[in-house]
Amino acid sequence: MVNFNYVITDEIGIHARPAGLLAKEAKAVSSRVVIKANGKEADASKLMAVMGLGVKKGNEITVEVAGDDETEAAAKMEEFFKANL
């Protein structure tokens, strides 16, 4: 398992548009991607679960990636967060 922390910089937090892009990105890798925030966790490939975390600007999240391509997938997810959130 590979994990990293990220502080959300988007003014609105993780709202519908970036959550949809995140779910699409998570589905594109074979590893399982889980986001942990505010004492809850969600499968990153499930749009409503991600939005249900209620992540706002300034919140720190932990992203856990586990599977066959976890190293590459974690790097890809980290780049996604830096570019979009």
Order of helices and strands: EHEEHEH
Q: According to CATH, what is the topology?
A: Histidine-containing Protein, Chain: A
- Gyration radius, in Å: 11 Å
What is the β-strand count? 4
Brief overview:
The protein is built from three helices and four strands.
Could you walk me through the main structural features you see in this protein, from its secondary elements to its overall organization?
The structure is a single chain. The chain is an alpha+beta fold and 85 residues long. It has one domain: HPr-like (Histidine-containing Protein, Chain: A, 2-Layer Sandwich). It is built from 3 helices and 4 strands. Strands 1-4-2-3 form a 4-stranded antiparallel beta sheet, with helices on one face. Strand 2 and strand 3 form a beta hairpin. Helix 1 packs antiparallel against helix 3.
